[in-house]
Amino acid sequence: MRIHIQNPPDDPHFEITEAQWAEALARNPGMGPMEVSFARDDAGFARAIPEAEVVLTWTRQLRARFPKGALPGLAPRLRVIAITSAGLDPAAPFDWLPDSVALLNNRGTHADKAGEYGIMAILMLHTRMPAFADQQRRGEWKPLFSSTLEGRTVVVVGVGSLGGGIARRARAFGMRVVGVRNGADPHPDCDETHPNEALEAVLPRAEFLVLACPLTERTRNLLSRERIARLPRGARVVNVARGPVWDQEAVLDALDSGQLEGCVTDVAVPEPLPPDHRLWRTPGMVVTPHISADDVLRYNDRTLDILMENLRALRDGRPLPNRVDPSRGY
Amino acid sequence: MRIHIQNPPDDPHFEITEAQWAEALARNPGMGPMEVSFARDDAGFARAIPEAEVVLTWTRQLRARFPKGALPGLAPRLRVIAITSAGLDPAAPFDWLPDSVALLNNRGTHADKAGEYGIMAILMLHTRMPAFADQQRRGEWKPLFSSTLEGRTVVVVGVGSLGGGIARRARAFGMRVVGVRNGADPHPDCDETHPNEALEAVLPRAEFLVLACPLTERTRNLLSRERIARLPRGARVVNVARGPVWDQEAVLDALDSGQLEGCVTDVAVPEPLPPDHRLWRTPGMVVTPHISADDVLRYNDRTLDILMENLRALRDGRPLPNRVDPSRGY
Predict the structure, then answer these.
(1) Which of A174, A188, A177 is nearest to A210 (CA)?
(2) How far apart are CA A212 and CA B36, in angstroms?
(3) Which of A57, A158, A172, A184 is most buried, by the most CB atoms less than 10 A from its CB?
(4) Does the interface predicted TM-score (ipTM) exceed 0.95?
């Protein structure tokens, strides 16, 4: 099988190396004969793509690499495009993707790291760290007390890889975890699960709200100004999804008014956020630069293990575990 | 038995109320006949103390309430002084305390809350939140990546109630927990325990160092400038003990030089910290105002449960579980 790995041109942290590939093969014996090529530039991509059966690449490159109508002509043997992120939204709409090519995302890579980030964010909000950060800027020593997380309710919107990792950690701290997802299948780390349609009904119970869903046309503006008003006063929100999943201006207004007590966000509109943006300066808001789910030590190894698991399924004629449905957007 | 509860004059958060006392009695049946008085002021103290057998009060009040030589004359029937904090250091030296009076601390009240604070602090340091806080102040969007806590080593100095609570949480995240304590008794939440004398030897392994010991003459300046130099470069430190347990100026110098990557401290010298103090402004330092172990919802209930457990032991002639040894300081 011919695999091509197209790395981003300038990201030394997450470039997949030949050594990592060799280690992945050693961890995954019996993969059968494979030829692999690596490139960072356009020339390397152009050289590899006519023969490639599998391409592993970054989501942001997809629409530029495969303009609408270019497939299957550009890569007649291509059967699989695997992307290194969980979210597909930078590649939407999927008018460029023929049915003959399976699109795989990288879900499963992010759960542990996202779980740690998520529970850190919840603990910070519970302990009133945004207020203490403001006090530290002012040099003000004023105790504000809190209790423990036990028995507090967290609503997690999206209990896939990211949200599931956070739910698992929250349960370990004795929180009541309410999952909101497509359908209402129970989730092993949620005390209750509700379908998306029930979101309005559970919001008034959300002492903590975690946004961990993919960005699709259905989830854009999911946490709208109206829904923020349905949260209990002083609620706290964590966003590890995408900036457009909430109404960013409405969130900042709600922090200013006290409807929200604090937020931790790993995403913003736009990214990178310009230096003078209001999001940086609104009291109660903690901003991190889109790092919540990327485990720098283990990311590439997990990415390659997931790819190999899917290639085994392809070889054996089984459904590909990470295949996504572009019409749903995840 | 005659109990007197002397509340602080102006702390509504932690004032023990008659209702809380009644609830505690309901949770602890069979305590036998007890008369209880409550006061916040000097007059109430003076009225109650000649007949009191047990006093529950705040540590900071002790030396003023019981000047050297005043006991036993001031309170001839007094058998127990129970304090509402874990640390005794504000009451030292103990030249005012006769052997006829048992001093109880409040250990056991703080473990859960301190555990949550401690793991929050470790997660924040691991995720590089101090650097992100600096970037947020500057409006700078620059990703810095990290891995997960699994397999990282944390050295916890003092594995009593606070340090034990933190060790338990750290283990749940897969960390290797190295406890340092008096003696070297194994601790159920530590992978290894070492006696205090081995501190020098374990410091080079401390990716994370948590100070959770009492302040005594032996632990004053425990994290000295010389010992900071024995930590691995880029180490991270959490202080939930007392400000004088570390050399505060040396810690700030080490943050400036990069020897330490980040610190979270809940204590300072002095408290409250003045607005212009260097501790507020040193990059890499996160400061909270002495709130890490005080669970505002459950503190008083736990305090009273611990008191009643000790009073049952007193009645039955058993050793008092929370009795402290003033010569050790904890």
Answers:
(1) A177
(2) 52
(3) A158
(4) no
pLDDT at res. B328: 81
Return the pLDDT at A86: 81
Interface subset of B 271-290, CB within 8 angstroms of A: 271-277, 280-281, 286-290
Nearest to B287 by CA among B278, B299, B300: B278
Query: Residue B243 has what DSSP assignment?
Result: G
How many angstroms separate the Cα of A26 from the Cα of each of A31, A304, A305, B178? 10, 11, 10, 33
Query: Cβ contacts (< 8 Å) between B162 and chain A: which residues?
Result: none
Residue among A176, A168, A160 nearest A115 (CA): A168
Asked if residues B311 and B54 have their Cβ atoms less than 8 Å apart, the reply is yes
The verdict on whether A271 is a catalytic residue reads yes
Specify the DSSP class assigned to residue B198. G
Contact A65, A6 (CB under 8 A): yes
Q: Residue window 95-134, chain B: list those with CB within 8 Å of chain A.
A: 112-113, 116-117, 119-120, 123-124, 126-127, 129, 132-133
Angle at B261 between CA A267 and CA A119, to 5 degrees: 40
| Torsions phi, psi for B319 (to 5 deg) | -60, 140
Give CA–CA dist B118/A23, Å, rounded.
36
d(CA A212, CA B319) in angstroms, rounded, equals: 52
Q: Distance (Å, rounded) from C-alpha B157 to C-alpha B181? A: 6
Average pLDDT, stretch B236-247?
Answer: 97
Position A257, amino acid: S
Task: Give pLDDT tens digits for B85-143.
Answer: 888 888 889 999 999 999 999 988 888 999 999 999 999 999 999 999 999 999 999 99
The residue count for chain B: 330
Contact A61, A90 (CB under 8 A): no
DSSP string, A130-188: HHHHHHHHHT------B--STT-EEEEE--SHHHHHHHHHHHHTT-EEEEEESS----T
Helix or strand (DSSP H, E) at A26: helix A18-27
Residue type, B150: E
Q: What structural domains does chain B harbor? A: 2-109+295-316 (3.40.50.720), 111-287 (3.40.50.720)
